[in-house]
Amino acid sequence: MTTDDVWTVEVKRDLCVGNRMCVASAPDVFEIADGKSRARSAYWSASPALVDAFESCPVSAIVLRDETGAEIESEP
Ligand code: SF4
Description:
This protein is an alpha+beta fold. The chain has a single domain, classed as Alpha-Beta Plaits (2-Layer Sandwich). It contains two helices and five strands, in the order E-H-E-E-E-H-E. A three-stranded antiparallel beta sheet has the order 4-1-5, with no helix packed on it. A two-stranded antiparallel ribbon has the order 2-3. The longest helix is centred in the last third of the chain and has 9 residues. The radius of gyration is 11 Å and the shape is globular. The termini are close together. The structure holds iron/sulfur cluster. The site of iron/sulfur cluster has 14 residues, from helix 1.
């Protein structure tokens, strides 16, 4: 991972349980709306905070994809 990488960020809101772990890790990226998380924007520079949020989600509701559209399974 480098900060030059741009990832798309999606929250599967049907899975999200709204425990705010991702917001605590990456408040710039995630916000709570109607009790569930959503990404403030679809595109974000890769960052340790974003990886922390991704890994902290207890229900794997956060989907990160690289520039090719490939899903990121764990910390690159
Ligand atoms: S960590 Fe996962 S379950 Fe918790 S608010 Fe974020 S997306 Fe939802």
